[in-house]
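pls ignore typos typing on phone
5'-O-[(L-methionyl)-sulphamoyl]adenosine + seq
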Amino acid sequence: MRPFYVTTPIYYVNDKPHIGHAYSTVAADVLARYAKLRGRPTRFLTGTDEHGQKIEERAKELGKDPQAFVDEMSPPFAQAFRELGCDFDDYIRTTEPRHEAKVQELWKILAEKGDIYLGDYEGWYSVADEAFITETELKALDEVTRSKVVRVKEPSYFFKLSEYTDTLLEFYEQNPTFVQPEGRFNEVKAFVKEGLRDLSVSRTTFTWGIPVPGDAKHVMYVWLDALMNYMSALGGPAKAGEEALYDRFWPNATNDADVVHIVGKDILRFHAIYWPAFLLAAGLQPPSQIFAHGWLTVNGEKMSKRYGNFIPPGPLVEAFGADVVRYYLMREVGFGQDGDFAHKQVFARYHGELGNGLGNLLQRIVASILKNEFGGEVPAPNAIGDEERELVAVAEKAAAAAAQHLDLVGPHRALDAIFELVAAANRYVDRTAPWALAKSGDKERLATVCYHVLESLRWLSVMLAPFLPEKTRALREQLGLPPISPTEALDQWPKAGEFGGLPAGTKTAPGVPLFPRFDPKDEAAILEKLGANKPAEPAPKAEKKSKEKKVDEKKPEAAEAKAVAPTETKSAAKAEAPSTIVFDDFVKVDLRVGLILEAEAVPKSDKLVRCQIDLGEEKPRQILAGIRLHYAPEALVGKRVIVVANLAPRKMMGLESHGMILAASDTEHGLSVLRLEKDIAPGTRVS
Ligand code: MSP
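k done
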């Protein structure tokens, strides 16, 4: 089996852990647990990034010695991750000697190859991001961030990055999934194609870093130092046979190891450009994949201490338990996309999919019927029919799909697939009505039904184990099954043809509900305690644009999306949007996929187009849109757009409009109707 090495970014210790950090780490933990279930030799690394100007300044501000400061700040990260059930195999700190020695080794290799030279750096430096900033990038920054960027002029060593432009492009070509999601890879390639400049890799105006070998006036650029953590934690670079972990888990010509770095999109450039360039220059193999996930906002706002909405994971874990937080983080947001963390949604998912879906399934069968009818023992199934065959087919499909998605780093899709089985099993219970069978005394059929539900639950206890390690353990306990052994190198993932592995006669052990309901009063108290009802502090205007936009997202800010029914557009543009809305308000807007069947210009209007749109209803809807200046009506036919379907009808130019098409515009590009990349069915709800 291919060895699997998964890493998180190492976290800056200038501040305390928050759910953004938890997000990367939980995702890596899910992948590691899944790989272990599949019997792959697996290693999971996380840790802290402890050098650099930012940390030195923070320590100074607090009047602390930098080493004492980082020694105090690093353990809470490890603790927060452990509390979230993250079972990392190693925790690296960049101030550890094992790391420092390896960074110096890499430096020496690069210097010996002639890829490092001494020069002078003059330009901008963002201490917050520990990044060198070009004039163009500086202009794109918002005021607050720009005010923190400093002008630097100092002697500096440079890495000849410019000479690796073609090597990198070739490497990308040969490794078409090196960066995921694909759209991010395209951005990286486009950036590299523009040509790279040499990279300053040392600093002389502060001292908190790893000394440059042979020149004690310089400390290494913190990103060169930090990126090496992935390799130093394995004891690399090392000569073959010198270090077992490195030989086994870092890719080389013979081991076929698979290395996935999970990172946030804001730090993609460092991982997808600098890191492989250093490694290729040093004659070392780059990792297999960099997966860039999106950023979380909190109740619709950027998360930051300045907004008073910085969410530490601890209180959430205390309120909901680690598994629920893990589940929520992995389920709520498509991995790779930006998304929102909303406290109310945690409750919604808790009571919905987890409680009513999974918890109930167990409760309905094990706690009542099985206990009363079969003395708590798993009965042997009897003759099966279409209902059973259907359920088994769903289970097999779910297991195959979930595995495929997890192999491709799509935890949210895997959960979607797994919950198809939860839904199917609940439907099966509804249809077969075991309580009625019990009443009528049809024990034979009842045995078959119970068995199929229990076996579905067993499959779920395996497939959900990477996401819900604690709850699946409890689930298995109630099913009378031993915990899954994470150390046995066996492929334990359920597969087609294996439905029916639960031994008849197994003694179940009904226990407390897996997801007991919160009383509405407790729910309100928890929300209050977590500060979820408190509106976020109004953001200072200039900081509205988020940090992640500036270095890796070079595109100019998109103008706000707006609707294109002309009258609404004006008033919507004028109305000041509230800083946050609760989820319940958002769902009041019925957004649907619409397929434009017909489109024609409205006579005597230079703006309006009259569209007939299929919204999956009996008849197409007539919707007027003020887009004629930007689209020829005939070009709209066949397009799938997003429609506000529950807007009160209104009359324009004597014609009724029954909805609104969404679009965005800016002065540079004009107006663009929001379109779907895939042929999603008309009428599908957009959320
Ligand atoms: N120290 C560097 C990483 C070096 S890796 C060799 C760093 N540290 S960080 O603490 O600032 O950020 C670590 C990770 O947390 C990044 O991947 C970043 O994207 C992630 N997040 C920080 N805030 C986040 C959100 N609000 N949402 C999701 N992830 C976010 O960068």
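Residues 341-521 form a domain with the Isoleucyl-tRNA Synthetase; Domain 1 fold (CATH 1.10.730.10). The two ends are 39 Å apart (CA to CA). more later
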